[in-house]
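User: For my dataset I need records formatted as: sequence, then structure tokens, nothing else. Please produce one.
Assistant:
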Amino acid sequence: MEPLELSANSGYAPAQFTLGFLLYHGATAGDDLLPSDHARAMPWLLKSAERGSPAANDLVGRAYLEGHVLPHDVERAKRLLTVAANARIGSAQVGLAAILDTEPRLAQALEAYKWLWLAAGADYPGAAENLAITATRLNQTESEQARVLAANIGLARPVPNSGPTCQGGPLLRKVQAGPLRATLVHRFLRTNQL
């Protein structure tokens, strides 16, 4: 553990995350036991999140959301989870959707659907079930809008049988923004009756 701490203290971001992760969850190495210590873990995870680690943003964001170790702060959680969700971390996508789904505005429901659709497409546990629940808040047109939002951020895959308005289909490949992307998204939606 000492070399890892030295590396983390020197400012090496991957070591900061690894040390924070190990302290947060606890670990064993041979006969050595590193007990879980959330209070010691969080400063390392915060440093790693500040340096842009998506995984650290996920853990710290969920800590803010749960009010565990860090004070409950939904806005900070939303900001941090957005970074991790954009990096395709399923737990962050589901956590961010949970925040957005509690807000009454349609724009937030569309965003929640988008994140759940992406997480479900990556087979993140529980995402498809949450997607089906969120789908009940949207009509067909709104569901289409949410799927276009998901397609616009990259690897979006429809999820079979994930609700009354979502149907299976091919993987949307990552394409640079512009007319080609718009054409592919439109063709995909029309072909799959989404």
